[in-house]
Amino acid sequence: MVGKEFPCLDKGFVRLIDVMGDDAAIVQAARVSYGSGTKKVHEDRGLIRYLMRHLHTTPFEMVEFKFHVKLPIFVARQWIRHRTANVNEYSGRYSEMKDEFYVPAADQVRAQSASNKQGRSDTAFAPEEAARIRQTMEQTQDRLYAEYQDLLSTELAREIARINLPVSNYTEWYWKIDLHNLFHFLRLRIDDHAQYEIRVYGEAIAQIVKAAVPIAYEAFEDYILHSERFSGKELAALASVVGEHTFDEGALEAFGLKGREAREFLDKLAQLKG
Amino acid sequence: MVGKEFPCLDKGFVRLIDVMGDDAAIVQAARVSYGSGTKKVHEDRGLIRYLMRHLHTTPFEMVEFKFHVKLPIFVARQWIRHRTANVNEYSGRYSEMKDEFYVPAADQVRAQSASNKQGRSDTAFAPEEAARIRQTMEQTQDRLYAEYQDLLSTELAREIARINLPVSNYTEWYWKIDLHNLFHFLRLRIDDHAQYEIRVYGEAIAQIVKAAVPIAYEAFEDYILHSERFSGKELAALASVVGEHTFDEGALEAFGLKGREAREFLDKLAQLKG
Amino acid sequence: MVGKEFPCLDKGFVRLIDVMGDDAAIVQAARVSYGSGTKKVHEDRGLIRYLMRHLHTTPFEMVEFKFHVKLPIFVARQWIRHRTANVNEYSGRYSEMKDEFYVPAADQVRAQSASNKQGRSDTAFAPEEAARIRQTMEQTQDRLYAEYQDLLSTELAREIARINLPVSNYTEWYWKIDLHNLFHFLRLRIDDHAQYEIRVYGEAIAQIVKAAVPIAYEAFEDYILHSERFSGKELAALASVVGEHTFDEGALEAFGLKGREAREFLDKLAQLKG
Amino acid sequence: MVGKEFPCLDKGFVRLIDVMGDDAAIVQAARVSYGSGTKKVHEDRGLIRYLMRHLHTTPFEMVEFKFHVKLPIFVARQWIRHRTANVNEYSGRYSEMKDEFYVPAADQVRAQSASNKQGRSDTAFAPEEAARIRQTMEQTQDRLYAEYQDLLSTELAREIARINLPVSNYTEWYWKIDLHNLFHFLRLRIDDHAQYEIRVYGEAIAQIVKAAVPIAYEAFEDYILHSERFSGKELAALASVVGEHTFDEGALEAFGLKGREAREFLDKLAQLKG
Q1: Which of A174, A210, C89, C249 has its CA 20 to 30 A from that of A255?
Q2: Rounded to whole angstroms, what are the CA distances from D101 to A252, C91, C99, D124, D168?
Q3: D132-D136-D137-D141 Cα dihedral, nearest 10 degrees
Q4: Which H or E run contains D135?
């Protein structure tokens, strides 16, 4: 996986530079915490799943990823809000910004969502309308880059010349983060509510993480990504329906729930019923 | 609330030193992010609940609490694992440790839990047995403190003389944390799986927080403390029961679910059914 | 100080929203750490200066500031690199970006620095040249905002329509940070090597901090801002000159060095001489 | 280096588990920030030294170390105050604490320092006195461990039984930290003011770091460890002596100062003289 470029958007990419640790490193760290007691009970996969399910997050911090990412500035601005990470970004003060700008693909040229104040709707503009918008955007970007070049040719300081470059301009960075915080990043950025343009990067990173720590990633999918949280009031509403129902062992196995996980599910149901 | 001492365990306490912000400060910060658009839709309470429900955690970081806490060293060792906080602790290098040690109350002298590798069982030892153990503990603590005093009287450096003091010895600190991270602390430390001795502090702090930011605390209870998360597999099992059921508006209101919250619940159910 | 707007650049500002603690709060926290022993020796001012001089930074973390800031996006991008802080920023996904853009004042329209790869030179362009550049910048900003409005009027989603807005566009945020980390911010951002546009904000914040914690700020100036660090090799070079020299008490007092500080200086000199 | 155990104190150790990156990784990350411009000017060693000298700390964050450490609890309590790190510690709730306790070597059995409120003096107790103290400590530790075993044999929960174990008891953890924060740890913990017992660990880690990133470590020694900071007032005092002196190129080279470093030193001197 290391070094392979995953293209993102029209001109960006994610590339794994280095990784420290794997599924075994998570287990190794957890065994220090939980001591020899755990050795017999859990095999590795079970232990990793147990840790994820019960929010024992520190062993996941023992795996570290470093990526090289090329991304538009407006995506970088959302991304950088994840503070527990290390970043070295290309600097427009030291070096010339490059002539690369993001233009949304035609099918992403969409109206404001009616239901979601922060998002776009599910249907694209008519093709001609989208084409027109894309063309306008590109022309503007060309003009802005030409102006930037003009300013540089007057010897104007780079740090001033770049102030009218748009947030669609591509930048680059090295980004290093531990697996626990990376899962948190993915949870928020793979989500439907994330802006499409950062979601594309989230999905590329998810592929890399899945290959690097397959057991941990599967646990993340089962217990976080594909899970759902119900509030106290919602649980009461659920209980009014589920209340009469009982699950036998066979029924639970049919859903993939067995052993400790099955017992934990039955405990949750028992609590639901009060 | 400021200055009031909440006794914890046999000799400890929690005391609020200062607080910056309240429920209104959360709203104020959120309105900067979400702009004027939100002004009409939500009143304050609805906005705070929306933020909590949807993990928009940054506005909660805008409220800050500072506590003075007196606690046994073994509790301090669990507590300090919450890294996103500021701490000034009493130093056994600069000053003499004090003659104060934690002794569990008789009803907390309990056997190892059979089901929970890290906890104690639900029933206490027989009173005489508990009394005997408590007495032994106290005698040991007395002896250890006397030895500490002996060592200090030889002029031995404080930083060495204290190394045989036990982790039941009380220490003190100032502890400052923002509300988002404090909720995370409470979630883990009020929980059944937390050691009883830190839970006592968690509950004292919860009272203070509830008084300081009542709307945010109520949202925390509804959507985090009293909530339950179901994994992908568990959701499938739930769906097999809930699948046929529909809730009408009146039924939901009976559970306290209305408006946006009711719609969100119905959306979750719809997803459950696939 | 709370609420007062400090104008920055052409359209920005810094405004103190709230502050928790003052010089006394630093002392209060330090006294917990260092115990009663310190009570007699130091008065408050001396203690604060001692803490600053010896990098005992945690008591400074016990003071917290919250600001409301309006700033160009390219300044926000530098600012946000300070990770140990809390931020709520205006969102271009939720709300329309406003028609406000930074245009450098004529005397800041300068050439690339010859000596500093990341900065601008000390002399401004000729007035007509600067005026021409400023006019071009403003025209571009007007055109870009008009295009943004056009895109919004086609119902294009706000999160896409804004991608060609330039990094000179103003944004706003609430920013909360503890005093230790704020001093670190100021140290880097008041510095000559910081870009002028963020330095302006640093200097406004410095005024506010100076008023809020005058003793701590003075210590910060003496021991950090106005200090200089010499490497091992540089110390050897210095020693070759200073080696023969001795300072008597009176001479040191003339430089404002007395008591503990004078002794510490003589200790440094003694080490210099080997 | 990986896997090699560095013994520390009487029963502890530090062991490098894994490392991500090396000197080249620092350069690689810096080149992203500073762009192609730096490529020609600096060779790698010069660039790393430049970064260290000018507090461009983020490229050093791109290297990550993971250690396995066995250490007394009182050392662990000082160590954990470094918050920007990841930790998995052995848990006395899950597992039995082990029969291993720190006893200071005879030459570390010393009186309270007269000058340093937090430290010990430079001379050890008389051998017989030290031997007596060591023997008392060991006997106490034996008795405490026997009591712990007695309590466990009554089935008392581990999390309670351990509360009278002393802070000299050994614990273990996995500890992961980036190079920038590790340098900060070393700076504080190799220092004379650090307690001897943590300094021993600091020095073991320093050896490992020196082997892993020799160029960065050398820069850390030159510009941080062996450097000295002078306050504004101290600089004025220095200036009164150095004022008349000039260094020519040859003189500076004799101190190992040449090229950019020599120029920077002359700049500092010029500022000194006002």
Answers
A1: A210
A2: 49, 56, 68, 21, 5
A3: 150
A4: helix D127-153
CA-based torsion, B134, B138, B143, B144: positive or negative: positive
Distance of CA A83 to the CA centre of its chain: 14
Cα–Cα distance between C257 and C260 in angstroms, integer? 8
Pair of tokens at residue A93: 């003060």
C-alpha span between C201 and C230 (Å, rounded): 29
- Measured at the CA of A107, the angle between CA A136 and CA C155, to 5 degrees, comes to 60
Residue with tokens 């010859």: C114
B58 touches chain C (CB under 8 A): yes
Q: What is the mean pLDDT of residues C199-223?
A: 97
Q: Which residues of chain B have a CB within 8 Å of the CB of C158?
A: none
- The sign of the CA dihedral C67, C69, C73, C79 is negative
Tell whether the model's pLDDT for residue C38 goes beyond 80. no
Strands (E), D119-245: 120-124, 170-178, 228-230
Rg (CA), chain A: 24
User: What amino acid occupies position C105?
Assistant: A
Q: Do residues A183 and A205 touch, judged by C-beta distance below 8 A? A: no
Q: CB-based contacts of D41: which residues, under 8 Å, 6+ apart?
A: none
SS3 C15: strand
Does the domain made of B1-98+170-227 have the CATH classification 3.20.20.10? no
A55 vs B: CB within 8 A: yes
Q: Which helix (H) or strand (E) holds B236?
A: helix B232-242
> What integer is the mean pLDDT of A256-270?
91
- C80-133, pLDDT tens digit by residue? 999 999 999 999 999 999 999 999 999 999 999 988 888 999 988 999 999 999
What letters, b where the CB count within 10 A reaches 16 and e where it falls short, cover B59-80?
Answer: bbbbbbbbbbbbbbbbbbbbbb
End-to-end CA distance of chain C: 49
B53 has catalytic annotation: no
| Domain at C1-102+168-227, CATH from 2.30.42.10, 3.30.1360.170, 1.25.40.10, 3.10.290.10 | 3.30.1360.170
Residues of chain C in contact with residue D240, where contact means CB-CB under 8 angstroms, are 251, 255
Give per-10-residue mean pLDDT for chain D (274 aa): 96 98 95 67 83 95 98 98 96 96 97 90 94 98 98 97 98 98 97 95 98 97 95 92 84 92 90 77
Kindly determine whether residue A108 and residue C158, on different chains, have CB atoms separated by under 8 Å: no
**Is D119 touching B (CB cutoff 8 A)?**
yes
CATH 3.30.1360.170 applies to domain D1-102+171-227? yes
Which CATH architecture describes the domain A1-100+170-227? Answer: 2-Layer Sandwich (3.30)
Task: Write down the pLDDT at residue B39.
Answer: 55
B181 in reach of chain D (CB within 8 A)? no
Output the CA–CA distances (angstroms, integers) from residue A80 to A73, C56, C74, C184, in the order listed: 10, 30, 14, 19
Considering only CB atoms, which chain A residues are within 8 Å of B47?
A: none
Q: What pLDDT, on a 0 to 100 scale, did the predictor assign at position A42?
A: 56
List of chains touching D (3+ CB pairs within 8 A): A, B, C
| pLDDT at residue B41, rounded to an integer | 47
